[in-house]
Design a protein that fits this description.
Elements lengths: L1 H19 L4 H13 L6 H17 L1 H8 L1 H20 L4 H29 L2 H27 L4 H21 L22 H4 L5 H29 L4 H25 L5 H20 L4 H15 L2 H13 L1 H33 L4 H22 L4
Helix pairs in contact: 1-7, 1-8, 2-7, 3-6, 3-15, 4-5, 4-6, 4-15, 5-6, 5-8, 6-14, 6-15, 7-8, 7-11, 7-14, 10-11, 10-13, 10-14, 10-15, 10-16, 11-13, 12-13, 12-14, 12-16, 14-15
Length: about 400
């Protein structure tokens, strides 16, 4: 039976690598896609917004879908949906076709993200949640690398989507083949929550629900703002070259990936609450270092620390959700958490863009620090309001 449990865990890990693979493809391929379609550079935004909107919608209905289909079937169907959409991207001949295929991609990504996070939070130890999201980071770094290799070899951007689509299709077959092992043999427990799905108004009334949703909003707002604007910060404020700025900006994601790997070991000794607090402390230390008049080196060290601080927050908050709200309610709560996360991703990086235009890029550490302190307030409020199971 333990062999089946470990096999299922391996399937889940691979699924999260797969989930991260397409995430950076649009940004990596857009410089080639944009002139081919003859649209303004800014038109990448609506495609990304469609994907994010679909992700929010599917996250909100993930509880209902999981109760109806089960985690295994919903994961397989969702990955199949993203595979089909990636093939659609690969064969798109116009900008409007991209917008059309962005709809199923967003819907598939949100469902698999929510249901897998909940399944691991309920059935596995905290270390696996951290390593799970480390696997997502591996996928998120690999996708753009594949697109870059495709373009370097002289192939069109379409082949980047095609190759990732083929990988997703292979994973889809593996997921459908693994449906029998999604029933936990050690607990004789079905992978779908039982009972009627919860409505949104019921979910937000749970003690601590609003606090955890706002914690998630703040975290993803901070992560995406730092990740999307790091290159511009080093280029515009640090006065570095475009190549150097892009290279240094990648340190933020290196920090997250390495941090989540080691956080898996830290979960064996420290609680989720302690690790989240520690992560917030490291982020604030990075913000302070960036504000010091020590030149570009301080900015680099600060961004690396912010990435390391971000590492434990997402997986630890997710893993603690069943403890806060009960396993029977966690899928519904995590679905709304994911929706709030994607809203933060959509909203706050553009907000910083307006701030940067108004006051300058030097404000980035101040902006990140304000979001981080707000996140700390809501995280502490969460632990005052919830009753642990």
């Amino acid at each position: 039976m333990m062999e089946l449990v470990q096999l299922l865990l391996a399937v889940i890990y691979i699924s999260f690598i797969s989930l991260g693979l397409p995430d950076g493809l649009l940004g990596a391929g857009w410089p080639s896609m944009q002139p081919e379609f003859g649209v303004p550079v800014s038109w990448m935004g609506p495609v990304a917004l469609i994907i994010s909107t679909g992700t929010v919608i599917s996250s909100l209905v993930s509880d209902r879908l999981t109760r109806k289909l089960g985690t295994g079937m919903l994961t397989a169907v969702s990955v199949a949906t993203t595979a089909v959409s990636l093939f659609g991207f690969a064969f798109s001949g116009s900008y409007w076709m991209l917008c059309l295929w962005a709809i199923p991609y967003g819907l598939g990504a949100g469902s698999v993200d929510s249901c897998l996070n909940n399944y691991v939070a309920i059935h596995y130890e905290g270390k696996h949640m951290s390593w799970l999201h480390c696997m997502w980071s591996v996928g998120a770094m690999t996708g753009p690398a594949i697109m870059g290799a495709v373009l370097t070899l002289g192939q069109s951007w379409n082949y980047g989507y095609l190759y990732i689509g083929i990988l997703q299709a292979v994973l889809t077959l593996a997921l459908f083949g693994s449906l029998k092992i999604w029933k936990r043999p050690s607990a004789d427990q079905e992978d779908a929550p039982q009972g009627a799905p919860l409505k949104l108004r019921q979910i937000v009334r749970f003690p601590g629900a609003k606090a955890i949703f706002l914690t998630f909003f703040c975290y993803c707002a901070l992560e995406q703002t730092a990740g999307q604007w790091a290159g511009s910060y080093f280029f515009g404020h640090g006065k570095l070259s475009e190549d150097s700025s892009a290279l240094l900006a990648s340190l933020f994601y290196v920090g997250i990936t390495v941090g989540r790997f080691f956080n898996g070991f830290l979960t064996m000794r420290f609680s989720d609450k302690a690790l989240v607090r520690g992560g917030i402390g490291i982020i604030l230390a990075g913000v302070v270092i960036m504000l010091l008049p020590l030149g570009v080196g301080a900015g680099v060290a600060g961004f690396l620390l912010i990435g390391l601080g971000c590492a434990p927050i997402y997986p630890c908050v997710i893993h603690s959700t069943p403890d806060h709200f009960g396993a029977e309610n966690s899928q519904a709560v995590i679905g709304v958490e994911m929706a709030c996360a994607y809203v933060g991703i959509c909203v706050m990086p553009p907000v910083f863009g307006f701030v940067a235009d108004w006051l300058g890029l030097w404000t980035m550490p101040v902006f990140l620090g304000i979001i981080c302190l707000t996140m700390l307030i809501f995280h502490e409020l969460l632990h005052k309001q919830v009753k642990h199971r």
